[in-house]
Amino acid sequence: MATVLITGANRGIGIELVRIFSENDWTVLACCRKPEEAQALADLASKSSQIEILPLDVSDATSATNLAEMLKDKTVDFLVNNAGIMGGERQGATDMDFDAWGEAFRINTMAPLRMVQVLLTNLRRSTSPKIATISSQMGALNRESAGAYAYRSSKAAVNKVMQTLACEMAMDGFIITLFHPGWVQTDMGGSQADITAVESATGLFNKMAALTADDNGRFYKWNGEEHPW
Ligand SMILES: NC(=O)c1ccc[n+]([C@@H]2O[C@H](COP(=O)([O-])OP(=O)(O)OC[C@H]3O[C@@H](n4cnc5c(N)ncnc54)[C@H](OP(=O)(O)O)[C@@H]3O)[C@@H](O)[C@H]2O)c1
Fold this sequence. Notes:
Layout: E1 3-6, H1 12-23, E2 27-32, H2 39-46, E3 51-55, H3 61-70, E4 78-81, H4 98-124, E5 130-134, H5 149-169, E6 175-180, E7 184-185, E8 195-196, H6 197-208, E9 219-221
Helix pairs in contact: 1-6, 3-4, 4-5
């Protein structure tokens, strides 16, 4: 049975990814900041022996190395960097919360690479290691739109980080991808969004489970179509 590790697994798209991976016979390492408060995830895990809940704040180096220590000697076949934040209320050209912008970079841009670093030994134990990072169409340079400077720039940057990593790690057999999950009805996306978290996670899973070496370094939409950079 293959193992997937999912960050930000307690709500939104993350918890639906936990559900669908586990329903498809994956072992799921479901990581969240506060397991003691993650009731919905605990309920899900109580119905499936394949789900293990682990503590992880992706922006905290100690938390990440503690997780790696807990997983020593385990194989991780698939890392899904899902945890993300918008980056504060004030992110306009003339009114910017720069501290919140920094936090957006720490969580949305730097943490995905940190997770790869701390889990590299676990991923290398897999016969076909894969990494998918949930980015956003809001980080695509081809899409001209106003506002949300912190969020857009953090997602544009993680696209470049993962594209670069895909070039470097292809020879080692890694398959590294980015996904726009759709505009999704979650706390982040709001109730007016286009699709439900179940629809998004189902589409993401279908593409993630079918990835091949040809997909390395590519940016996809939740429905499996290629996303322009
Ligand atoms: N919803 C959309 O329309 C949409 C569109 C494009 C891209 N995305 C991306 O999709 C991903 C999931 O978004 P969502 O809509 O499911 O958002 P959400 O409902 O707001 O959930 C965000 C998740 O990220 C976790 N998280 C935030 N900071 C963290 C940290 N430092 N360490 C660990 N976990 C952390 C949250 O945990 P806590 O509960 O502890 O805060 C929560 O589990 C994000 O990367 C987001 O940028 C979403």
